[in-house]
Amino acid sequence: MSGRRLTRRQVERIRELHENRRTRARERAARAADELEDLEAAEPGTVIAHYGASLIVEDAQAVLHRCLVRQNLGALACGDRVLWQRARDDSGVVVALEPRRSLLARPDYSGRLKPVAANLDQVLVVIAPEPDFNEYLIDRYLAAIELIGVEAGLVVNKLDLCDADRRARLEARLGTYARIGYALLHASTRTDLGLAELRTRLGGRTSILVGQSGVGKSSLVRALLPEREIRTQALSAATGHGQHTTTTTTLYPLPDGGSLIDSPGVRSFELAELAPGELDRGFREFAPYLGHCRYGNCAHTVEPGCALLAAVGRGELDARRLDAYRQIRDAAGKRPA
Fold first, then answer.
1. Which of 20, 61, 153, 275 is buried deepest, with most CB atoms within 10 A?
2. Model pTM?
3. pLDDT of residue 51
């Protein structure tokens, strides 16, 4: 029995059952929230973590409260600013969502976008010499970050694995990103290389680190958050979820100001459905040339009078980046509806 493989239909059925259970749990929690009575006036708070049907909200005094959510608010995310009302037992109910200045989302199993983190100031993509990185993946990350309107940068981690020659080759591969204005931060948790600079970059901002498995993101988070375990214990006490709090998206205060959102699940970005031409904004170096092509519907492929192709020919734009743009655009166009 242990060697039996599930059919595709069985896998889909299991996913459907799990989703139905989660939906029923959310509906029960929302109905319970609507039935709460005798609440005090609403007060501001920040969503620190999300646990299915309930949230952990931090109040103005940095006290954590387990809260339910009104039915009409939709899906909330870590980092959301909310208004909540306190119940008699010091739990509460979120009654309003304040406007977001940014939202990072990713598709769930069914392809629907799921909020991950809100009110971000920057997203830093972590790469490393091992496992080797793929520039096309970096381009997809950066395009997605540009389109949600926050700062982006690269953290080159695990540099203790590089000798001088290997580091020089690494810098050459990443040179394009530096030339078009992306910050390149170097780090190693084994030698403490670059950690002070990284802390300065994070200070005073709400940030999240993303990256593929094995690049050392978790080690960086531990190094940047010396009191992370204390926060985790406080969350465990507030939720009753014990050690499970370490596997959910959580907002942590940084020692020098600002916040770092630790999200174990954010390892790749899939771009949402885009309007024609919208991906152009995801490639910042294209901006001076957009609108200058001979044809208004230019695909920047072989068209005569294409301003981007001409810029590549003059050495002003990187040909590989233009090719990455086409690949991302074409892949999005082939995605099933």
1. 153
2. 0.83
3. 80
Residue ranges of the chain with pLDDT lower than 50?
1-3, 36-39, 243-245, 336-337
- Least Cα distance to 98 among 71, 123, 118, 121 occurs for 118
Q: What is the pLDDT of residues 52-104, one digit of tens each?
A: 778 999 999 999 999 999 888 888 999 999 999 988 777 899 999 999 999 99
Q: Does residue 96 contact residue 83 with C-beta atoms inside 8 Å? A: yes
Dist. CA 14–CA 337, nearest whole Å:
22
CATH architecture of 103-262: 3-Layer(aba) Sandwich (3.40)
Q: Which three-class secondary structure string do you get for the chain?
A: CCCCCCCHHHHHHHHHHHHHHHHHHHHHHHHHHHHCCCCCCCEEEEEEEEECCEEEEECCCCCEEEEEECHHHCCCCECCEEEEEECCCCCEEEEEECCCCCEEEEECCCCCEEEEEECCCEEEEEECCCCCCCHHHHHHHHHHHHHCCCEEEEEECCHHHCCHHHHHHHHHHHHHHHHCCCEEEECECCCCECHHHHHHHHCCCEEEEECCCCCCHHHHHHHHCCCHHHHHHHHHHHHCCHHHHHHCCEEEECCCCCEEEECCCCCCCCCCCCCCCHHHHHCHHHHHHCCCCCCCCCCCCCCCCCHHHHHHHCCCCCHHHHHHHHHHHHHHHHCCC
CATH number assigned to the domain covering 23-97: 2.40.50.140
Q: Say which CATH class 278-334 falls into.
A: mainly alpha
